[in-house]
Amino acid sequence: MSTPRDPDEQYADRLRDVLRAEGDQVVPGGDGLMRIRERVGERQARNRWLVPVGVAAAVALVAGGVAGGLALAGNDDDSAHVLPPAASSTPTVTPTPSQPAVSAKPITVPVYYLGDTGTALRLYREFHSTNAPASNPDKAVVAVDQMLHAKAADPDYNSLWPENTTVRGVTRAGTVATVDFSKDVNGPFQGGTEGGQLSIQQLVHTVTAADTTIKSVLISVEGKPVTSLFGVDVSKPQKRGVSYTVLGAVWILAPTQNAKVNSPVTFSGQATVFEATVSIEVRRGATVVKRTNTMATTGGPGRGDWKLTMILVPGTYEIRAFEASAKDGSVTNLDTKTFTVR
Amino acid sequence: MTRVSADDAVTDLYSAHYRPLVRTAALLLGNTAVAEEVVQDAFVAMHGRWNRLRDPGKAAAYLRSAVINRSRSALRRRVVEDRNRPLPGVDAPSAEYGALAMLERDRVMGALRELPARQREALVLRYYADLSEADIAEAMGISRGAVKSHASRGLAALRQTLEPTA
Questions:
Q1: What is the ipTM of this complex?
Q2: Does residue B164 surpass a pLDDT of 80?
Q3: Does the beta-carbon distance from B152 to A8 stay under 8 Å?
Q4: pTM, entire model
Q5: Which of A47, A174, A318, B135 lies at a 20 to 30 A Cα distance from A8?
C-alpha cells in the first residue's frame, strides 16, 4: 500500500500482518475429516431411531419444541441458505426429510488396506460409503465387512484375509472389542509372517477407527476365542502398533482415487518422512506436469499432515507423493492417486 | 440436475475449506481446539442439510456463516465460564518470532478480543479471510452497510486502545 491517508488504514495493515502471523500458527489436527465423518455417522444412527416413529410422533416432537429434527441435525441457527420445507399437502416438518424411511442406510466407514511400499507392507486408509442393514448398524461390523469384502478404491491396496470370511459380530467389554469371524478365516493365508502381522493390524486399525471407544481387539471364530491367527499370537487384546512401523510413510488422502475435483486442486495427506519433506509429482499420462515438494507439519518419526494446492487445467492426472531417499534421492514410500480435474 | 452426495461434498469442501475455516475461527476464539470443534460442527450440520441447500455452490458460504454463528455462541459460553480470565492468544507462541513482534501481536490480539463480537468478526473476515464486503455480509447475516460500519468502528477502537494518546 502506498501512503495511506486515513490513520485507521495503517492499523488495517498492522492488523492484517498480525492476523496472518497468528493464523499461520494455527495447525489443525489431521483427523478433522475422520471426526466429521464419525459425527455424521452418529447423527444418522440417531436419526434412524426416529424413522419408525411416524409422522404423528414427529409432529409431537416439533410441536413440543424440544429436540425435533433440527436439534438432531446440528442444533444450529444458521438457516439463511436452507430451503424452507416444501409446502406439500401435509404442512408437517418431518425431522429429516433427507432421510427416507428405508431399511438400509448409507454409512461411511474407515477401512484400512495393505499397500506395498517396495520395501515393506504398510497400511493405508480409505473411507467407504455403503448401505448398512438397519438390523445391524454397528459401524465396526460394517467397517470389518468392508475390509473383508470390498475392494479398495485404490488398485494399489489390497487385503489378504482369506476369501469367504465373514464377520459375525463385534462385542464390546469396556474398551476391548471381540470380533467374531466365520470359520473361513482359518482358510489358506498367503501373506507370510509380515502379511499376517499387518493383517491383524489392519483389523485393529479398522475397528478402532470405526468406533473410537474401542482401543484393542480380541478375535474369535464362530464364538470361540482363538489364540493365534495367521501365525500371529492374538491371545491378548491387540492394540494399534507404533504408527511408523505400521502405516504407510506417505499417504495421499485427497483427492481420493478417481475423484472429480475442481481447480485449484488441493492435495493433502499424512507423512512420516525425513525432515518432514514430502516429494510431489503430478503426471498427465507419461508427462510430468509439476514436480515439487511440501512440508509435513512434523518430521519423522512423528506423523504430520501435508497439503498443497495446484492450478491444473481440466484432464485426468496422477499424483505421486513419496519420500525421496536421503541416500540417493530415489523414490520410496510412494502413494499414488488418479483424479480428474473438471 | 445431478448433485454430488453429501459425503462427497464434505470430502471436497473439507480439503478446500477446513484449514482456513479453523484458522479464522481460532482467531475469533483464541483457541484452536474449540475452533476445530466449531468447524467440524458446521460440516456435520451442512452434511445434514445437504439436500436442502438451495444452491450447492453456496456450500462454502453456508459453512462460513455456520462457523461465525457457532464461534459467537462458543465465545459467549466461554466468557460466562471464565469471565475473569483474560482470553489468551492463539495457543502457544512460537519461538521464531522476536520478542518485540510478539509483544506487538499480543497487544493487537488483546485489543481485538476486547472488541464487540460483530466488530471483531468484520475485521477478521476482512483482514484475515480476505472476504469481499458482500461475502462478509452474507457470513454475518447483516447488510453490507452494517459490515462497513462494524469494520470501521472496530478499526477506530483498535487504534484507540493501541494508541491511547492519539
A1: 0.86
A2: no
A3: yes
A4: 0.50
A5: B135
